[in-house]
Amino acid sequence: MEYIINGYEPKRLFEIFEEISAIPRGSGNEKGIADYICAYAEKLGLFCVRDDVNNVFVRRNAGKGYENAPAVLLQGHTDMVCEKNAATVHDFTKDPLKLRVENGFLSADGTTLGADDGVAVAMMLALLELDEDMPMLECLFTVSEETSLLGAEAFDYSVVSARRMINMDSEGEGIAVVSSAGGADACFTLATDRVSCPERPVKITVTGLAGGHSGTDISTCRMNANRVMGRILARIYEGTPFNLVSIKGGNMKNAIARECTAEIVVLDKNALEGELEIIRKELTDEVCAEDSGIKIFLDKGKACDKMLTYKDTSTIINLLTLAPSGVYAMSPDFEGLVRTSCNCGVVEGDENAIKVWVKTRSSCNSEHEVLLRVLKRLGKALGVSCEISGIYESWDFCKDSEIADQFVKAFKELFPDSGIEPKTAAIHAGLECGTIISRLGGCDTIAIGPNVYDIHSPDERLDLASLERFWKLVLKLIRG
Length: 480
Prior knowledge:
The protein has helices spanning 11-21, 31-44, 115-128, 150-154, 225-239, 269-286, 310-322, 365-382, 402-414, 433-440, 464-479; strands at 47-50, 56-60, 72-77, 99-102, 105-108, 137-142, 164-167, 175-191, 194-196, 202-207, 212-213, 243-249, 255-256, 260-265, 295-300, 306-308, 326-330, 338-349, 353-362, 385-392, 423-430, 444-447, 452-453, 461-463. It is an alpha+beta fold and 480 residues long. The protein folds into two domains: 11-170 and 431-479, Zn peptidases (Aminopeptidase, 3-Layer(aba) Sandwich), CATH 3.40.630; 184-392, Alpha-Beta Plaits, CATH 3.30.70.360.
């Protein structure tokens, strides 16, 4: 394999990242990366367990001088968010990522990079083969973190002996996460009635939004394309009722939707263009800098035989405008931290039904229960089903974490001139830590990582020098 990342140490770490980037590993498609990890462990002669869902656990025994040192559990997930620009031709089920290095950053051409959480996968494999003595390492590679936390929930933790864990599914140099939000998925489903379509529909497209992570970026004021489409359709419907033919927005429940398209049959097309121009001008004054590239345009839709009734069209509009999406409540304990939020991540449908997916997050269990009840009541009020699934646990803050204190000390010792003051923090993103800690019956844990920007979007990029420093930091934490 020809490698494109040069000049960074250890060289093998960066080579492994390039190798796994050639393996398709979207959520639910982790067999290939599990094969790679198991073959890797077999080559090194290490204890390895693979379960039915493709979680992989690898153990490296303690080296000379570390026989009595406490074991360390390293953890990360093998799946990645598969997002691409509309014009990018890429099949995430079979195509390797097209990597590029520019100005010290690694990115992928028109797609997500998968540094979330390819960094953890590459780090664990490079550490397992490192020709140096260290304490026992237990490495857990989980699946489907981006969609359901299936892997963390399904794994049999009886093989794990460590009670210190370094999760490497965080982004931000010098920050040790010590608490994260729990969450769930709410799926609204409208079984649609359709009538004969008298003419060819027109297609409305919302594109050019920045998108981003529905946890870490939810407070940035970035617009959600699905919500923008709801706003557009609501305005049009008030003046000129129409019939919805199809709607599709967003690709991932945990990503802020960047694009949305809707096909409608409307009698007064001139009025439609006038309404869109008003909305364009309104949004110009409202969007944040990241969303300044927003575009709304009209085109011809595909010829079709059926369209939704006025009633079902109105119901979808109501759902897109009334379902909570964005910050729901701020934390009273951590300044600037979102406590509870929603994200209208995906709108999709076929000839039988239209589904709207809302991702919820909260670090307050009681408030989260209230929010889920609100969503259920909304479904009842609109006459659509609302199914709650994928509930996962929050990770509660521990004030007496030894490994968190070790992180701060190690960072200061290694990088005294970095200009970064290391700190601990709570985040609004969901991590597997809460589930793993619960299954282990307790585990002193931090979540750390190098600088990775714009995750869950095609603009995702990894700071290569930051990853180089991250390697040194993790190695120091392992050795104690």
